[in-house]
Design goal:
Shape: elongated
Radius of gyration: 19 Å
Number of strands: 4
Strand content: 5-15%
Structural class: mainly alpha
Oligomer: single chain
Distance between the termini: 12 Å
Strand order of the largest sheet: 1-2
Order of helices and strands: HEEHHHHHEHE
Largest sheet: 2 strands, antiparallel
Number of helices: 7
Length: about 160
């Protein structure tokens, strides 16, 4: 289930970027964007289903990328709020239009996805288990900087 190679990490990154674009930026208008999450908020039930599915997919990508528990929880908060915003649309009412506008402005999928991408950028992924990498110059250099406090990146072994 978790990524074991840099190629798999690349595919995770592409998947996260795709969800961000589809969910919150299919059509861009200056600094604002409208995506499926906002458009489907006007369709009873569809917004909730899409938002929940896209959110679960982002969390699955986070688990595959071995994101920290704190990052996963932070993402879950954004995604839960984004999904709960759509709940009033299950029953059409005059409030539905207001909720659809608010859901378009609350770009939880984008925030959660960007949080995961930044976390991945702040992580050094090393292929293989630690015991096979003894003496690997690139790894030894990063490890020394992390241990000295000069650098704050995490080191994750993919093996």
């Amino acid at each position: 289930m978790t990524a074991r190679t840099h190629a798999e990490l690349h595919n995770i990154r592409v998947g996260v970027e795709r969800i961000i674009k589809i969910s919150d930026r299919v059509v861009g208008i200056g600094p604002f964007g409208i995506g499926l999450d906002g458009l489907l908020a006007a369709v009873p039930g569809a917004g909730v289903l899409y938002s929940a599915f896209a959110g679960l997919l982002l969390l699955a990508y986070g688990i595959r990328a071995r994101a920290s528990l704190g990052t996963l929880l932070h993402m879950a908060v954004y995604l839960t709020i984004d999904t709960l915003i759509d709940l009033p649309d299950l029953v059409p009412s005059p409030v539905s239009a207001v909720v659809a506008v608010f859901d378009t402005l609350f770009t939880g999928h984008k925030w959660a996805g960007n949080l995961l991408l930044k976390h991945m950028d702040d992580t050094v992924y090393v292929e293989g288990p630690p015991r096979r990498l003894g003496g690997h110059p690139e790894y030894a250099d990063v490890e020394a900087r992390v241990r000295s406090g000069e650098e704050r990146r995490r080191i994750v072994f993919l093996g």
